[in-house]
Every structure is written in C-alpha cells, then in structure tokens.
Design goal:
- This protein is of the alpha+beta class.
- It has ten helices and 18 strands.
- The protein has a seven-stranded antiparallel beta sheet with strand order 11-5-9-8-18-16-15.
Length: 407
C-alpha cells in the first residue's frame, strides 16, 4: 500500500512566472498533472521558459516530501552551464575566429561525430587524455563499480565521455560582456552515463508503481515515483548524485581544454579565480518554508540570495550572468534559458537556412541545416523571459557570443 493518500480532485497550487507569454496548453496540463501528486510540497513553480517535457515540463521547480519523480529529473542528469571571465578584451581576439573554432572542436569531442584524426570516437574519445583518465579513476571509478554492481544495465561508456560536449542544445561559446571582456561559456551534462541512469530508474519506477496499490490515479505513467525508505529510492539517490558529480566534472574538464585552445590564439591571459558552474537538471535536499524537502529543478537554476547563475538565450541571442534574489515562492530558483517555442521537428520544417544565416550574422558558428532546430527562432524571446523574472534574479552581465560551437 502506498504511504500517500489524496482526494482525486485535489492538487497543489501553481505559481507561474508566465508574463513572458502564456504557456502552451500541453505544458500547462503537465504542470497540473504534477500538482496532483500527493507528495507535492506547497506548490509547483513554473519558470518563464516553461515548455513541454517528458512527464514534467522543462522549466519547472518541484518540491516534494518523501518522494522523487525520476522523469522530472530527466535523463540528462546534472546538465548545466559553466562560465569563466578572462582578462582578454575583444581587441585581443583574432580578427577571424574560424581557426579558434576549429581549435576548440579539436580540443573537445562534440555531438556523435567520429573524427579519428582529432582523437575523437563516436560520442567521446578514441584515446582518453591522461588528465581525463586521472579524474575518472581518482573521483569516479570506485563509486561507479558499486553502482553497476547493483544495477548492471546502467554500465557503458563512462571515462571516454568525460570532457565531451554532446549534441542537441549543448554548446561552447566565446562571449563578450558590456565592457568587451571575453568570457568562455559552455553547456553540457552527464552524457551517456546520466542518460543510462535516468532511463533505467524511470523504467524501474514505472514497474514499481504497477505493483503498488495506490489510492489515487497516476494520470501520466512518466510521473512514476520512488519513495523514501525503499531500496530503489536509495539506489537512485546514489546513482543520481554520481551523475550530478560527473556532470560538474565534465564541465570543469571541458573548460580547461577550451581555455587551452583559446591560449593558442590569444596567449597570456588570466581568468577570474571563481568560475560559475551550475546544474539545471537535478534534484537535491534543501530547506524551504522551514521544512526539509526534495527540490527537483527540471530546466531551472538555483537562485539563492547572492548566488551567481547562468541563463543562456540561444546560439544567436546572447546570455546572462545573474545573481539570485532568493525568492522563496520560486523555491529560490530561476529559469535555465529562453525555453523552446518550436519542437525540433517543427523548427526544421519552419526555419529556412537563409533565416538561420541571417540570425547568426557576425557570429563564428555552424550555419547548416544540421543546426536549424537550434536556430534562435526556435526559442522564446530571452528579453521577455528575463523581464518576467525580475523578482527572481538581478542581471550582473549581458553576454553576446562571437563564437559558437554546436554538436
């Protein structure tokens, strides 16, 4: 028997930062579905970049008591952003950034390419660099073996995907701020490792729910949950935390390699001592409204008072470095980006290559049909999204990209 009980028509309130424009009907239904779960704490928060996702919307913050929904965390566990400010200014960059982009693409495997000449295998390294291997064996190997021993089907590529970018909406950028200072920014997560962990436990949660006698109706099977006290819950926490740590290290290793590539074309620069490295797909234990709860941020960033975060727009519209205001109603969170207005399939049908080239004018980047689903027109207006969350964050820096690397 489930430890949860709820009246079938009951649901928690929704608190939505939707002044950037009405949320799509499918996303609104998903928010209501999540709000009907019996373990929701206080309310469900919808960030201004909300759009449809698997089970739960991308751009939602879900606080829960005694349970976690693996599909709300997702399969790119620990996906997030990292940014570093350098001492370089725009005038110190080469006039053409094409060679620098090629250097970065050699330094970091991207997408699912196979480029043996650059030491890249499909989705990772053909021969893993020593620095990457050391990080794996020092920080992750023992933990991973324990996880695989309990959950053999999550095994697969691990160390050879550290320091790799992946495809989809993941990217590496060189940007300029309002003072023409050069920043390096990147977006990646836990790669195939997190995907296998997420997929395995989402399916395990569905199987476990089938065996439960629930006194409420689970309206979406992708909202299958794991409850505290169960072995499956403990196993998921162990694997999820592993994937989140892997994702953090992945971004750190990528950043080292990108900065090394930059130094070959603009030598002698320094970087700020503190980098920003933040997840936006994850779950963690936090205290809100005086109670300890699980907070799942699916496409949302922690924005506690004074905490720095990164909100990217799209590959052609710039990004923001922000400082959190600690708004309790959003569970101290903000959006993780602009949010999509077109599915990938729609974008490929509706956005022409000519439109994409025009949107990317002045940016060293791919301008081919393979990235039309990431073109700026596929995303919400980042300015409107930022205006909608002025009570969540204050803008510290506005960045505009001059170079973009996509998978």
């Amino acid at each position: 028997m489930s430890q949860f009980s709820i009246h079938p028509t009951h649901h928690a309130p929704l608190k939505l930062w939707d002044s950037a424009g009405p949320f799509e009907a499918g996303a609104m239904q998903q928010l209501r579905n999540v709000a009907a779960l019996p373990f929701i704490f206080r309310h469900v928060a919808g960030m201004p970049d909300v759009h449809w996702g698997m089970g739960a919307t991308v751009g939602s913050v879900i606080a829960t008591q005694r349970a976690i929904v693996p599909a709300a965390v997702g399969v790119d566990i620990g996906c997030g952003m990292m940014a570093v400010r350098t001492s370089l200014t725009a005038s110190q960059l080469p006039d053409s950034l094409a060679a620098l982009r090629a250097e970065i693409e050699r330094a970091v495997p991207k997408g699912m390419e196979s480029n043996q000449s650059a030491n890249h295998a499909k989705g990772g390294w053909a021969s893993t660099p020593n620095s990457v291997s050391r990080t794996w064996y020092d920080r992750f190997e023992d933990r991973w073996r324990k996880i695989v021993a309990k959950n053999p089907k999550v095994d697969g590529k691990t160390s050879d995907q550290l320091a790799s970018m992946g495809g989809g909406n993941h990217f590496i950028e060189v940007c300029l701020d309002e003072e023409q200072r050069v920043w390096v920014m990147l977006h990646s997560g836990s790669r195939g490792t997190g995907n296998r962990i997420g997929t395995w436990f989402i399916n395990a949660a569905k199987e476990a729910i089938v065996k439960e006698t629930l006194d409420f109706h689970l309206v979406d099977k992708d909202l299958a949950f794991l409850t505290e006290g169960s072995q499956l819950f403990d196993d998921y926490l162990e694997a999820m935390h592993f994937a989140q740590d892997y994702a953090m290290a992945n971004r750190e290793l990528m950043m080292v390699r990108v900065l090394e590539a930059l130094r070959k074309h603009a030598p002698g620069f320094k970087t700020d001592k503190a980098a920003i490295n933040c997840h936006h797909n994850y779950a963690t234990r936090e205290v809100h409204f005086g109670e300890q709860v699980w907070v799942t941020r699916k496409g949302a960033v922690s924005a506690r008072e004074g905490e720095l975060g990164i909100i990217p727009g799209s590959m052609g519209t710039g990004s923001f470095i922000v400082e959190g205001l600690g708004n309790p109603e959003s569970f101290c969170s903000c959006s993780h980006g602009a949010g999509r207005v077109m599915s990938r399939g729609q974008a490929k049908k509706l956005i022409s290559l000519e439109d994409h080239k025009a949107a990317m004018q002045g940016i060293e980047a791919r301008v081919d049909e393979g990235v039309l689903d990431e073109s700026p027109a596929a995303y919400k207006d980042i300015g409107a999204v930022m205006d909608a969350q002025q009570d969540l964050v204050r803008i510290r820096h506005r960045l505009r990209q001059v170079l973009n690397v996509k998978g």
